[in-house]
Amino acid sequence: MGRKAKVMAIILGGGAGTRLFPLTRDRAKPAVPLAGKYRLIDVPISNCINSDILHILVLTQFNSASLNKHISRTYRFSNFSSGFVEVMAAEQTRESTEWFQGTADAVRQVIQHIEDWDIDTILILSGDHLYRMNYGEFLERHYETDADVTVSVIPCTPKEAEGFGLLNTDSKGKITEFKEKPKGAELESMRVDTTRFGLEEKEAEARPYLASMGIYVFDYKSLLALLSEDKSKVDFGGEIIPSAIKSKNVQAHVFDRYWEDIGTIRAFYDANLDLASAVPRFNFFNADAPIYTNSRYLPPSKIQASDISYTMVSEGCILNGVYARNSILGLRSRIDSGARIENSIIMGADYYESLEDISEQQAAGTPHIGIGENSTISGAIVDKNARIGKNVQLVNKEGIEEAQGENYFIREGLIIVPKNGIIPDGTVI
After folding, report:
1. Is pLDDT above 60 for 92?
2. Nearest to 348 by CA among 316, 310, 303, 311
3. Please, which pLDDT band fits residue 90 given cuts at 50, 70 and 90?
4. How far apart are CA 265 and CA 271, in angstroms?
């Protein structure tokens, strides 16, 4: 960076995570497991650390216990550093007795905790995106243009554009217009010549729109002014940014690499399974900018007589006679002989059961944590500590889109067994 900035990152943990339910039934959205061993929150925190931004607040208000535990175990900086990662839940104060009403309101309510840090720049991030960004480049763009606000944008196709807030800019990248999920003629009016942002002509024709990624850099004083001028404005994307465009210098920072909003069950599922492909779009094997997570000191996975391909296998698994394709097998997964796992996410377990515990459970008719003999799991998400019995079929043969039963859900055609769910021997779903 050209100047020494005093930057604080604020990661928005989101609301109740209804679009990711039931994965958010017992945990905050940023604490949802990712790629077998990580959690969603690890992505923006790691991007911050790799960008030398070490003052990080995570705002949340729902089911924050597991998020607190993960962050306190994982992100401990040196005693010789002032760096921190801190979860800040909604709290009642004399000024506000409400929960966070939106993204901007969440920041408005915690701004009092930031004042003592002598910050001049605030980086606002989301807790449910998968991408790798050097925020130094983002900040450089902000300072070079002397912006009050800088919005990170990604070029997108007409089909993708309908689901995002779109931005229009002048020839130098200053944002002149914002429209939330426009359709028809309004969508057409938001076309931008993206060649001026570095896209080749053919690529620019395919992706002629600039979608807001929902991440922003604010000059600290400008942020205070925008948050205080109208306290009825509670959302950054729909209210604060459009208002700022009218009165402030709001710039676009174009990001043209892999980025995925994984706030829905289908997007979460697709992004995870892509990680198991031969050439995934997101690379966890980048040693220059690693994604950090809790060091659990687990043993290597033990795999016997198994046929496993295009599958990510996490640490501490015990796989005996397993067939797996296009799947994610999470930490401490215990899968018995004859089991078939296809196009599925098995999140694993938080702890190991002893052989004595397993014997007692079996005597009581309860499956062990993991997946029992000769069970087939296809097109499913099996959350942590779930117990799948023997000869179970989770296959959704009838192609049901939405349903709910005892210890299972079907969302967007995907079977989901929630955390600690029990599926008895011989069950067919």
Report:
1. no
2. 316
3. low
4. 10
Task: List Cα–Cα distances, 343 to 271, 310, 407, 414, in angstroms.
Answer: 12, 10, 20, 10
The percentage of the chain sitting over the pLDDT mark of 90, rounded to a whole number, equals 75
Which domains, ranges and CATH numbers included, belong to the chain?
A: 7-264 (3.90.550.10), 302-423 (2.160.10.10)
Q: Which residues contact 393 (CB under 8 A, 6 or more apart)?
A: 375, 376, 427, 428, 429
pLDDT beyond 70 at 44:
yes
Q: What pLDDT score was predicted for residue 108?
A: 87
* Exposed/middle/buried for residue 120 (C-beta within 10 Å: 0-12, 13-18, 19+): middle
Q: Cα dihedral sign for 190, 195, 197, 199? A: positive
Query: What's the pLDDT at 80?
Result: 79
- Give the pLDDT of residue 2: 46
pLDDT over 90 at 32, yes or no: yes
pLDDT for 301-311, tens place per residue? 999 999 999 99
pLDDT for 16 equals: 65
Mean pLDDT of the chain: 92
